[in-house]
Amino acid sequence: MKLKTGIVLLLLSAAALFSFRTQQKPPNALGLILSIDKDSIAHAAGFKMIGESVGKMLSPSLNEEKFRSNIERINKAQCKVYMCNILFPSSMKIAGPAVNTPRVLAYVDSVFLRAEQANIKHIILGSGGSRRLPDGYDTKKAQADFTLLCGKLALVAQKHHIMLVLESLETAETNFLLTLKETAEVVRAVNNPNFKLNADIYHMGRMKETPQVIVDNADIIVHCEIAELEIRTLPGMKGDDLKPYLRALRTANYKGPIFMEPGAPYTAADAAMSFKFLTRQLEEVYAE
User: Fold this and answer.
1) CA nearest 77: which of 129, 119, 14, 123?
2) Which pLDDT score is estimated for 25?
3) Which regions of the chain are under pLDDT 50?
4) How much is the pTM?
5) In this structure, what are the phi and psi dihedrals at residue 45, rounded to the nearest 5 degrees?
6) Which of 76, 163, 169, 179 has the least CB density, counted as fewest CB within 10 Å?
7) Distances 110 to 116, 117, 118, 165 between C-alpha atoms, Å
8) What is the DSSP code string of the chain?
């Protein structure tokens, strides 16, 4: 009798555990990188967060009146402006032989101060043109020098309570730090709590990096971006199966947002479809 009761309890416990597992909801909020002018499109599609560019919202080249106007727009937006990308203009070098470190540091101090004032806590460091190396330049030296610079950038970010997030890119955008794996090496070498890693699934796919790299660097990933592989369409427009990378995010216990960053044209209807598509793929992964 005791054995039978024990088996019943075990089966009930297993059923309860299975039920809990299948009812788990993905912890990730979805965001869309687009112009703040189109904030209403993102909100209507279901997004709660958007991303903008440093040049448009925070750049030191914007006069104070324009910046204050931007703050008003950010405060009135239906979606939270969670992050800004494209930290550096392509004319300002951050890797290779032409880096002017004092100029770079003065620039980011101004940008991060404005980000702090605008309550934008995450700045994405991709900036492919700024980090492109001259042909034949020593990449080992470039990485060593870039790591030292990033250590200084991280201290400025820390000063202004900003999370600076380094992004790997692909060969169409730059020729330096082309994989998540090598980009993670820079983040680990800097070892600053305000300097972390962006797992950009589009770039990973273009560079044929496996989802396992996300799992391997789970402890330093704080941001994720995604798009379909062929022409950088919104998830669902071509129907790419994104689940292998989403499973890796789940295995990595990633709880941050997932931002769609399309490069191909799309409509408001496409945005709404994509929100539902990625939400469904996430739910299916978390129900497995």
Assistant:
1) 119
2) 85
3) 3, 8-23
4) 0.91
5) -75, -15
6) 76
7) 10, 11, 12, 17
8) -HHHHHHHHHHHHHHHHHHHHHH----PPEEEE--GGGHHHHHHHT-SEEEEEHHHHT-TTS-HHHHHHHHHHHHH-SSEEEEEE--S-TTS--SSTT--HHHHHHHHHHHHHHHHHTT--EEEE--HHHHPPPTT--HHHHHHHHHHHHHHHHHHHHHTT-EEEEE---TTT-SS--SHHHHHHHHHHH--TTEEEEEEHHHHHHTT--THHHHHTGGGEEEEEE--TTT-PPTTSS----HHHHHHHHHTT--S-EEE---S---HHHHHHHHHHHHHHHHHHHH-
Q: Are 42 and 50 in contact (CB under 8 A)?
A: yes
Q: What are phi and psi of 285, to 5 degrees?
A: -65, -40
pLDDT 10s digits, 101-148: 999 999 999 999 999 999 999 999 999 999 999 999 999 999 999 999
Tell which residue, 164, 65, 21, 52, has the closest CA to residue 105: 164
Tell me how far CA of residue 198 lies from CA of 10, 98, 165, 266, 277, in angstroms.
42, 26, 6, 24, 22
Q: Which backbone phi and psi does 198 adopt, to 5 degrees?
A: -105, 120
Look at domain 47-218 and name its CATH class. Answer: alpha beta
Asked whether the CA dihedral 243, 245, 247, 250 is positive or negative, the reply is negative
